[in-house]
Amino acid sequence: MFPSFTPTNLAILALALSSGVQADDKAESVSTLSFKNSFVSSGIVPEVIPALDPAVSFYVTYRADDGHNELLTPGSTLTLNETSRLPIEWSVENLNNATNITASTRYLIYLLDADAPSRSSPTARNLRHYLAGNYTLNGSNSSVLPTAQRLSIPEANRRPFTAFTAPTPDPNTGIHRFIYALYVQPPRFNSSGFESVGMEAATGNWNLSRWRTQLGLGPAIGATYFTVDTGLSVNGGSNNTGNDGDKSGAGVLMPSGYLSGLMALGAVVVGGLVLV
User: Fold this and answer.
1) How far does the signal peptide extend, from start to end residue (predicted)?
2) How many Å apart are CA 165 and CA 276, to the nearest integer?
């Protein structure tokens, strides 16, 4: 008996075949409550941020080491090879649960290291690896989770405020938690950059609380995170606390120079981070 195919499934199959990449056949929806609980069990809440109450399920799709496009679930442990380039796509579910959302709403996304330069001494906890606005729903579904709607940036607005910098934590600095967050973009930035309100391009001394105030942002409507395990922490102890993810073998081929890069950026101690 032959399986039945919907137009959506056929489109996804054609995309996978044309690219030579197989999609994640185990991808499943994650509830907003599970996202919220994962941030608590990982220690990100309240250690890094005081609270998270997501309105949407926010997904990241990345290229796995085995060649598949995989859906990132909160707390997944990735290798540096898997985190070395921009995600394949971003997508959302349950968007109707967010307030003040229309078909023309734009969104902004960032990626930061919550444990820079180490889990035991996160003196550069605001290190920003990516920041871009003007994301919109592009009218298509996720290639790995057909129930999720894809977010993309129109061609005319594709220059990010902070270009993607791959996570490269130094060896033996413990488990690093990297956070992706999704915000509704205030309409004033649809035609002007973040620098128009005094935001600096430097990534090493970014203050999230001040940034939210500068841009007039509401709470994050969605967030997820992954971990990179570099081995023992700098104080010789293990940092295997919280949710260490659902993959093993991370932390292979650790590039050096992470700490020197932070110094070059003028990283400073920033406490009391606020994400939402």
Assistant:
1) 1-23
2) 23
pLDDT level of residue 212 (50, 70, 90 thresholds): confident
Check: CB of residue 227 under 8 Å from CB of residue 176.
yes
- How many other C-beta atoms lie within 10 A of the C-beta of residue 238? 11
Tens digits of residue pLDDT in 26-79 = 899 999 999 999 999 999 999 888 889 999 999 999 999 999 999 999 999 999
Contact 90, 134 (CB under 8 A): no
Q: Quick check: is 69 in a domain?
A: yes
Bridge partners of residue 228, in order along the sequence: 176
Strand (E) or helix (H) holding 150: strand 149-152
Name residue 25's amino acid. Answer: D
Q: Specify the 3-state DSSP secondary structure of 62.
A: strand
Strand partners, 162: 131
Backbone torsions φ then ψ of 70, nearest 5 degrees: -115, 145
* Residue 32 within a domain: yes
> What total of structural domains would you count in the chain?
1
Alpha-carbon distance values, 183 to 31, 106, 150, 214, 218 (Å): 18, 9, 15, 14, 7
Say which DSSP state 235 is in: T
Residue 141 lies in a domain: yes
Query: What is the rounded CA–CA span in Å between residue 52 and residue 45?
Result: 7
The 3-state DSSP class for residue 70 equals strand
DSSP 8-class letter at 194: G
Distances (CA, A) of 7 to 71, 142, 144: 21, 14, 15
Residues 6+ apart with CB under 8 A from 101: 95, 184
